[in-house]
Amino acid sequence: MGLNIADLAISSDDLTAGGRIDDRFTADFDNALPSLTVTGVPDGAVELAIVVHDPDAPLPHGYTHWTAYGIAPHDGVVDPAAVRTGPNEEGERAWFGPQPPVGHGDHHYYFWVYALSRRVEGEPTREEFLERYGDAILEQNRLVATYSR
Predict the structure, then answer these.
(1) How many CA atoms lie within 13 A of 115 on its CB side?
(2) Could you report the per-residue pLDDT of 17-38, keeping only the tens digit for each?
(3) What region, left, alpha or beta, does residue 63 occupy, with left being phi > 0 and alpha being psi -120 to 50 degrees?
(4) What is the pLDDT of residues 35-63, one digit of tens each?
(5) What is the pLDDT of residue 6?
């Protein structure tokens, strides 16, 4: 079965696709998690997962800011209190807002949503999740925003 990317979408009242992330969502300021809304969840999805990742970070695999599992497979606003938060790059189970190196230019923050055909066990890292559950992804999509210091 080919990967369908036509229907599933992730959006935010707090972010604009391709736009700059407001300071309040960054680690230097309020470190608030932006609101996220998922639509177009495909039939057969048993769980959603969200991964926020900065591939521009000067690290071998970029920088993971948030991993969230156990999200109910329906359209609507994601409730952070109702997700199972996995580790970010700091090893914490929390949102860690953007904080790129000063003068490093624009970093791109990918807010990935995945519709899965099976449940995620435990709280894997981003790399573990992609390795273990890549074959369970029914659809995926992303919202990309930028930030620099």
Answers:
(1) 23
(2) 999 999 999 999 999 999 999 9
(3) beta
(4) 999 999 999 999 999 999 999 999 999 99
(5) 73
* Coil vs helix vs strand at 140: strand
Buried b (16+ CB within 10 A) or exposed e, 138-147: bbbbbbebbb
Coil, helix or strand for 108? strand
148 contacts 106 by C-beta, under 8 angstroms? yes
- DSSP-based three-state secondary structure for 29: coil
Of the candidates 43, 62, 76, 41, the residue with the CA atom closest to the CA atom of residue 109: 62
pLDDT of residue 4: 64
Question: What span, in angstroms and rounded, lies between the C-alpha atoms of 149 and 113?
Answer: 26
Residues contacting residue 99 through CB under 8 Å, at least 6 positions apart: 26, 27, 28, 149
Return the structure tokens found at 70: 């156990």
Which residue ranges form the domains of the chain, and what is each CATH number?
9-147 (3.90.280.10)
Phi, psi values for residue 98, rounded to 5°: -55, 140
**Would the pTM of this model clear 0.90, i.e. be above it?**
yes
Q: Tell me, what's the pLDDT at 129?
A: 98
